[in-house]
Amino acid sequence: MPHIAPYSFDGHVEAALFLAGEPVFALADGTIRFPAGGERVLDAHRGGLLTARLDGFAGQLLSGGEDGRVVATHADGRMTEIATAGRRWVTSVAGGPNGTVAFAAGRSAFVRDAKGAVREFPHPRTVEDVALAPKGLRLATARYDGASLFFAGTDAAPQELEWKGAHTGVFFSPDGRFLVTVMQENALHGWRLEDGKHMRMTGYPAKVKNWSWSAKAKFLATSGAPAAILWPFSGRDGPMGKGPLELGTRGDTMVTAVACHPTDELVAIGYADGMILAVRFGDSREALLRRGGTSAVSTLGWDAKGRFLAFGSEGGEAGVVDIAAP
Considering the domain boundaries, does residue 75 fall inside one? Predict the structure, then answer.
């Protein structure tokens, strides 16, 4: 089994990732941890951290919390407050091209440009999530009964993508051709943006809480079932009319986290019992990375070269797996 450098924290790990090759963990208690080589603890948010995501465009960790702040954490440990929502909780953050950052607080979404100017986009109901297109300055928001698309640099009315139900997450495909939302009703919904054609991805026994695009965006891997569910996106129609791959099935044990390898057709899968597997797409061959733990795996993240995998759990167990070590 591969070598694991274990870490132990006091509470829920919201995000496990790498900045400039160094493992970084964002915790619900509002701290950012750099544990390698002597732990550094950064106090990012008073009252608690609510959201944390890697901004792959700028190579930084973005986080939001109950203190209404949006914070960027850099590889050298610097923290920068890049925006504030006042007394409102920041519940979602996203990085985009050319230094842009989006975030959500209450019934508003915001976009901060590279010069520091912040623009607000009010909604009639709570904004559940935000995403920025991989090219251009286009903002997507998840809301009740669908998603909205804004050209953030103009005053043009948003494009409304309607689908009945509660939409709690939103993200673009890496090529920008598709928009996908996570639904409260144990499903995903998507739109092909060139013509608005719908895509329904259903059949989950639980809510999808974690997702990851594979190398070259051929597949979208998701949690929410007793296997990792991988929807095909390589063709013009995406998953329409196609069934998903199901990898790493372990009886009734639920998949709680997924992370596709940055270069290979391989996915790391975390489970409700703390186990982690790596599974190849082509032949479903499995490799055990971690036997298990005391709580569900909440987050997984590869380093840029795909040798090291960081993981965190709901109970604070965490670590880094070296998949090349004997």
Answer: no
The domain containing residue 8 runs over which residues?
1-42+213-326
- Specify if 314 maps to a domain: yes
Count the domains in the chain: 1
| Residue whose C-alpha is closest to residue 62's, from 80, 76, 43 | 80
Tell me, what DSSP letter sits at residue 217? Answer: G
For the record, the structure tokens of 255 come out as 């998949």
Query: What's the rounded Cα separation, in Å, for the pair 231 and 244?
Result: 5
d(CA 111, CA 119): 5
Tokens of 206: 């639980």
pLDDT digits (tens, 9 = 90+) for 42-80: 999 999 999 999 999 999 999 999 999 999 999 999 999
Residue 135 lies in a domain: no
Spatial separation of the C-alpha atoms in residues 242 and 202, rounded to whole Å: 12
pLDDT band at residue 326, thresholds of 50, 70 and 90?
Answer: low
Q: Is residue 165 part of a domain?
A: no
Given the structure tokens 């569910």, which residue do they identify?
229
Residues 178-190: tens digit of each pLDDT = 999 999 999 999 9
The structure tokens 């795996």 sit at: 297
Alpha carbon distance 198, 85 (integer Å): 33
- R_g (Cα) of the chain, nearest Å: 19
| CATH label of the domain that carries residue 36 | 2.130.10.10
Amino acid in the structure at residue 90: V
